[in-house]
Structure formats: C-alpha cells, structure tokens
Amino acid sequence: MQGGALVLFSGGQDSTTCLADALSKYERVETIGFDYGQRHRVELDARREVLAGLRRAFPIWSDRLGEDHLLVVDLLAQISDSSLTREIAIGLESNGLPNTFVPGRNLLFLTLAGAVAYRRGLQVIVTGVCETDYSGYPDCRDDTMRAMQQALSLGMDRAFEIETPLMWIDKARTWALADRLGGEALVELIVEDTHTCYLGDRAHRHDWGYGCGSCPACELRAAGWAGWRRAGGGDRDSPPAPPG
Ligand code: ZN
Fold this sequence. Notes:
By secondary structure, the chain is an alpha/beta fold. Helix content is 44%, strand content 13%. Helix 6 links the parallel strand 4 and strand 5. The chain is globular. The site of zinc ion has 9 residues, from helix 8.
C-alpha cells in the first residue's frame, strides 16, 4: 500500500485491468498515455471514459487516482509504416512480426514513463505487456522489461520497479483478474468502455465489448472472454468481494 505507481494506460482491456490492479495496491496512482497519431481516436476517447467510469463506480479508487498525463509523441508516425498509424492492411511481415509492430515503441513509452515517474516521485511503473498472448513483439518480453527496469534505474539514478501483472496470464485470466479486483462493475466497465479493436470499430457490440470481431485484437479478446465464461467466470451466484 505504500508509495505510488504510474500506469501506462491506453484505454484498452489490458491496461484498464492493470490500472485496477494498481489502484487496489497503491495509495497513489497516476496514469500516462500517448497520442502518437493513432488511426483511431477512439482509443483516446476510451481513456477518458474509463477513467471517469472508474471514478464513478469505485469511490475508494477515485481517492487514489491522481493525475493523467497524456503525451503527444507524433514523431512515431515519422519513423513508422505501422498499420496502426497508416492506412495499410494488418498482416505479417517477412520476419514473422505483425506489421502492427512499431520498432522501439514500448521502449520509448517506458522511457517517457520513467521520466514522468521520476518527476512525480513514483517508484513503480506498471505496464500490461504479456508474453502469453505473444504476437511476436520483442518489446513485450519479460527480458526486455527487466532490461528496461535496469536501464531506467541506472540512467535516472532512481530505483524503479517495472510491474507487469499480465505477463504470464492469458486473456481468459485477464477477465478473471478484473472480476476478482472489481467484480461485475469492473467487468461491465471494461466491456462497455475499453477499446481493443485494431480497426477502431465501435459500431458492433458483442458480449465482450465493441469491435469488428475479426481483427487479431478482437479475436484474442473474444476468445479470452469465451474461455473465462466457459470456466464459470461471471456467474453471479455468489457475490464478488468488494474492491479495496
Ligand atoms: Zn477488431
């Protein structure tokens, strides 16, 4: 409960779950997001909706939730042909990496997060990277996170800790974690307000939320939801423990 955390928060399912996790553990939590010329501004709208929803539904968390830092890093568009920032189709490159990969993006984001955390006196940096649903992103690996933690701590002479609550769990267990942290209210908020779809689709509503239903991000989210529900997740026969 001591100290504070800075959560890399995109407005998606994973980072919202990480934010809830941090709010359940730390007395002071701030968020950081990046405007890097995403094709779909819905991600940035989702951030605002989720933060407002968390404040409404969880008064205890609202007291702990501090400043949101939104940094404009439009230089990423200059050095990237990624399908997340340009109007090209999502697919695989010849090296096996999805073309949604922006080289060095997470490294840059973590460096910026380190700078903000330093300035704000926050020791823990939380990010929703995950090796389990690994799409081949080398900057989501546990080894990369450990190396970044060391680089930031050495480079800023501050003992940072990079926390990755989702590193070893799959999407079904990410839904289960949200349920454990905030019960039905948090699951509903994630379904309704978070955004994951690569195509920015907010027109089609599924059990697991909004999205095109067929891009890799939607498929992962839908499969995780189905797995969680199959295992009995979301059955409300016994009331979930209140968050705190
Ligand atoms: Zn989609």
